Amino acid sequence: MNKPAELKLDSVPAWIDGEAVSPSGRSGEVYNPATGQVTKRVPFCDASVIDAAVRSAAAAFPAWRDTPPLRRARVMQEFLSLLKKHQKDLARIVTEEHGKTLPDATGSVQRGIEVVEFACGIPHLLKGEYSENVGTQVDTHTLRQPVGVCVGITPFNFPVMVPLWMFPMAIACGNTFVLKPSEKVPSASVRMAELLKEAGLPDGVLNVVHGDKVAVDSLLTHPLVSAVSFVGSTPIAKYIYETCAKGGKRVQALGGAKNHAVVLPDADLEFAADALIGAAYGSAGERCMAISAVVAVGAAGDPLVKLLEKKAKAIKIGPGDKDGIDMGPLITAEHRAKVLGFVNKGKAEGAKVVLDGSSAGPKEGFFLGTTLFDHVKPGMEVYKNEIFGPVLVVLRTNSLEEAIALVNSNPYANGTAIFTESGGAARRFQNEIQVGMVGINVPIPVPVAFYSFGGWKSSLFGDLHVHGTEAVKFYTRTKAVTTRWPHQDTPAPGFNMPTLG
Known about the structure:
Blueprint: E1 10-11, E2 14-16, E3 19-21, E4 27-32, E5 37-43, H1 47-65, H2 69-85, H3 87-98, H4 102-119, H5 122-125, E6 130-135, E7 138-146, E8 149-153, H6 161-172, E9 176-180, H7 187-198, E10 206-208, H8 213-220, E11 225-231, H9 234-246, E12 250-254, E13 259-263, H10 269-281, E14 291-297, H11 301-313, H12 333-349, E15 352-355, E16 371-374, H13 381-384, E17 391-397, H14 400-408, E18 412-413, E19 415-419, H15 423-432, E20 437-440, E21 456-457, E22 460-461, H16 469-474, E23 476-484
Parallel strand pairs: 1-5, 8-9, 8-11, 9-10, 11-12, 13-14, 13-19, 14-17, 16-17, 19-20
Antiparallel strand pairs: 2-3, 4-5, 6-7, 7-23, 12-22, 15-16, 18-21
């Protein structure tokens, strides 16, 4: 009896020096999470391939650095036009490899496009300062200059948006870039590199490599890399920050989260519940800005939980490319098992199970239903850990003061929200809360592109956030220039410390 022919899978290429390349050696599998089937293979680049990509970026840097910012902006404008033209195609790639619903994927691509819109204003953003006569016939001005070869290491949950937080700003500032997307969702990054070449970007300015820890470590320790941007889990963010700092590299490493939403008794509970359901279960909870913990204050608790239960039960689970679906699968079978393990821990620890999604959803693929726990205590594992799945926990406090103290005691500090109709309560919350991004009746307070995204405490390692004006600061170095044009009768500087006046 003849064996069936083995299915030949497409391999996702790397992108080096303006060309698609197919490195040999180790590789990984890319899944469609909605079916559980392997759809592609992705090469795991070794140190030699990483070196080739970095050296390509280094070789392209001098000419790109010297390209006037206005010309760099024109490339970004062409790229922006192509992204808009191909937005639906990019969203389909995201849904195929990540699993999130097509409308959700389309929205995430749009948020990335908005960063490119911001990058088109780079000539204005790079302007320095000028002061005349800081001393007698002495002027001072500042320059913002690119840092060199920059690296981006991005997570699986936003295959288009998070890379677009990084490389457009870096490239617009005059740097060259090596992008290492998650090996679970590699295709969108290569497609964007193709579009940037079509937009007129010179070869070598953007390179895309794939892989696991071998590729990451090769990038972190490469002597020609000047700066590294990362979004992912807190343990890896801390490792990347420490490794880069030891090597003298500039680094911004965004880590994990346990985002809280505080709901006061005076809030519009129907509105709050609708907002929380989308924030908790959208994208199957695989968002670093997902609300995973609700703090119900006083009398808000019981009616809010009833509303959350009703709305969570109504969520339609299925493949993300089908109409009418609210929530797709998790990214891998391994991650599904990890999330399910936390659900079982919550039960064992005595949290009240309001809704158990352990066996809900289609049997094919990596689906898991919505789970809701009530009366969760801060010491429980379902509260302490970033679950990154469709699990929402509710904690109870008696006052806003207790709620603020609870949020501030958590080691994560990425995003938070408060639902209230009291301006005074909202003002106190925004002033006292120790979290990097705050929403007032806004459940997922991701700032628009011209503000910066980033958390505090264990959610960020480094001083500067991504996109917005802080991205310009991260991807450039400031140089201060002091100038004098002496006349013949001007006395020469002496041996003393120069003073103004």
